[in-house]
Amino acid sequence: MKIRNYFLLFAVSFGITITTSCGDSAEKTSSSQNPAYETIENDPTNTRIYTLDNGLKVYLSVNEEAPRVQTSIAVRAGSKNDPATATGLAHYLEHMLFKGTDQYGTSNFSQEGPLLDQIDSLYEVYRNTRDEEARTVLYAQIDSISQVASTFAIANEYDKMVSEMGAKGTNAYTSFEQTVYINDIPTNQIEKWLTLEAERFRNPQLRLFHTELEAVYEEKNRSLDSDFSKTFTALFDGLYPNHQYGQQTTIGTIDHLKNPSLTEIKKYFNTYYVPNNMAICMSGDFDPDMVFEQIKAKFGGMESKVVPTFEVIKESPLNTVVVKEEKGPDAEFLYMGYRFDGVGSKASELIQLCDMILANRTAGLIDLNLNQQQKVLNASSFTYILSDYSSHILNGSPKQGQTLEEVKDLLLSQMDSLKAGAFPDWLLEACINDLKISRIRQLDENWGRTSMMVDAFIQKRDWKEQVNDIEVLKKYTKEDVVNFAKTNYNDNYVVVYKRTGKDESTQEVVKPKITPVQVNRDDASPFLKDISAMKFDDIQPRFLDYDQDINQAKLDNGIKVRSVKNSNNDLFNLYYVFDMGKNNNIKIDLALDYLPFLGTSKYSPSEIQQEFYKIGCNFQASASDEKVYVSLSGLTENFEAGVQLFEHLLADAKPEEAPLKNLVNDILKERADDKLSKGTILFGGLSAYAQYGSNSPFTNILSEKELNALTSSELTDMIHSLNSYEHRVLYYGPMEQDELIASLKKNHNTPQTLKPIPASKDFVEIDNEKTKVFVVDYDMKQAEIMMLSKKELYNPKTVAAAAIYNEYFGGGMGSIVFQEMRESKALAYSVYSVYRSPGDSAKAHYVMAYIGAQADKLKEAMAGMTDLLNNMPESEKSFELAKKAALEKIRTERITKFSKLWNFETAQKRGLDYDIRKDVYEAVPNMTMADLKAFHEQYIKDSKYNIMVIGKKSGLDIKELEKYGPVTYLTLEQVFGY
User: Fold this and answer.
1) Any idea where the Peptidase M16 C-terminal domain is (predicted)?
2) Is 772-976 in CATH node 3.90.1640.30?
């Protein structure tokens, strides 16, 4: 699916009212009342839209697939609503809405409240003081009073409560126009959740502010370490030189970060967090009438207010090309963007069509003329449609020896082709069908439905318009698109060249010294106790029964066929799975990478891609270390045509030398680029080095000499012979098993006797006899640390204890690690630790810890994490909450759709013939703190680690690292194997 909004990867009563009685274990009943709500015809989500008397919008969509509910509480306020003199407020507030109110998050608000007021006042003085010596004294006062106030604070009570409910994905995000609070909760916890959320927005308190401010500092510095973030910010600055989209970043300016105002944050909350500016969006298994009555009871007392009208700053037309440059350590790339009118405008509709004609992953102008013809390393296009304005953004990365200016010219040449109408007449309709298929997939998931609800609310779109936004595109003709392109895509763009080099202009947020605060994890507010005491009907777990849940059969030559029926829509997914990958044949991934550039005796390379796109099918082939996956997805009505087409390609791909030569050159360029990417260095190269040493699957690659020695016929022979090897077929779609088998017998071209899988090259996971430290020098402001310790081979008997350990110790915001490292000591923005279970019985468990922090905090951060790993704090209350959370998640989790097939695949790889969650569910109720402590003593405490560090060498405290073990500096050649 092509993501349309690319970066959008954010006085009530308290008391027990109606006990929710819904889910798998109880019959649903409707309310006796019949509140008015809006619906529209032919809505695939059957969404009901209610409006409370105070203006609160409620979007409810029923999906009974699993007893869970995806929730989003949206506020129509984001960074564009920040005061120009105090940017970052919306984002600050998002963080603080997890800190509690006068009813929870505190053990004694009557004593805490006055201290918080003092801190509030001191921040105002601090904000308006310019003398650095005086500021230091003021901050010391803030820090001192914060220590006293923290004795009454109970950190992360919000997360404890939602975790106990069995919530997943608890988070929030802030963007230009919205702040959104997210949870995925069990159906039987709706009333608990509503009670908590109503309290959350009633009277929030800005407690533990200066440690959370430290986290925001870290977040800002992480963004300054991100070349992509800097480049996107520069692009929007050029597109919107006056409007807040370009002039107010979500995190805020460095100056405003250094001078926060709690008074302004409270003012912002009181202005925008009002019911007539908020929406509750829910999709899942519930009775909508009952849920609406509960929402009304909990949120109906909120007082509506007049929300300030946002005055749109009008931008002057862009009549010239604006060129900007950014520098950073990552590989070079560019963004170029055009500005248009906002949501609901004719332009916002037409740019979607222009975007799809340019790049749709398969048959767009950029796809075929640049990517497939290998004229650039990669290129694409996406739209960003907002309320006031929209952007159409193109991006590209250069081949070896190619300049960014040449990439820009190639992208513009495709824009010229668009303006010339140099695309087939059928492509426009195919693009619309592609968007429809993407929408069907989106609305098959609860998160997709709530995301669409949030978009409609934030952008003030009528639901009918939102549901039919793709259908309305059918009114446009090819002539309309071409004329629009001619008029609107000229020398009126902003281009940002991201070059590789040192950014001399980057500032760092210098943070004042703070004293760790108390987290009081064993305390519990009366509110938490009341929430925990609320009664609800248990939902019984549903474990997979592989014999019942998965249809299994064999073709005549023994190929296993496993299928799960799709009763939701007319889409299918088909996989051929081979138990061989790069470890079996070092060249197989190259052969599959080569495949998209090939034609057949019947079709040219571009023609076969267009044939797939015409019938609404997407074909992919890829290889991992141990597997090859050949997949096809699309509309069931074209299943047979799609299978025939990709079987034809596999059997008849014609060798061509030029694409192979280009592919080899691009692989060499990508390898060079990977050595510039800190994410690839740490989570790819260093992670593999920690696990295997220098000889790992990560470094199991062909040398440059071997790459250049490859022949096209050698690779096409591998493609032609692929179906002759042992494999299995996985299918999720509307077809019955018998119909599927008949179609495969007819169309799946395989020999009567299949070849056995070639032997695999073995890579040995290294033992940790002593702790060692490995460092890679990288130009960045932060340091990132990964600690990895090998344990025993996969042991299903440890799964239950590991699940509770991860819940209790190192997972979410309520975990011990998060509380101590971030909430109390503000040592890291991102930090976690898990006991990682392998997906293969032949591989080991690992203790894994991660810290992302400022380099100057490395000493304290390492000491803090090491102490926690060796001396796990014990809290009976946190332990019981962790048990409840784990059980509630299992009770309400439903493995559905294609996930059933992948779950079975993993079980088999682990040597299991049953759903391992059953063991966890049966074991957890009887577990004690002593059991958890014993698990920690056996598997975690005093472990020996390979500690992998990436950071700027001159900023790292190497002497401190040497205290943990001998330090070895690794070159990138050692890490990558080339």
Assistant:
1) 262-433, 731-884
2) no
